[in-house]
Design a protein that fits this description.
The protein is an all-alpha fold. The protein has one domain. The chain is about 70% helix and about 0% strand. Helix 1 runs antiparallel to helix 2. The protein is elongated.
Amino acid sequence: MEGETVSGEGKVVQAFQASFVQVQRLLDQNRVLINEINQNHESKVPGDLSRNVALIRELNNNIRRVVDLYADLSSLFSSDDHSPAASEGGSVATGRHAVAAGHKRLRSTHLD
């Protein structure tokens, strides 16, 4: 049945779309976090300022996740996963699974 299988190219497109949905959600969440951080900073209320520590950590983690998602997308397009051989039934490795499958992915180093 022709419509039941997704070609390698289709899997790349699906991974691309899913990653961008995740990125957009994280960026929307970051906008909310930044607004709250700014309000807390302007209020100068000690409890609000203390809360900013946790909010900034969450913001930082979200940024890391966005970077990882973009690195995953980059690996999709720089690997041979979208070659004709992969399109004929090969699988597309994404995210941390790409690393486990032997695909190289550069990660930035993080200072905490």
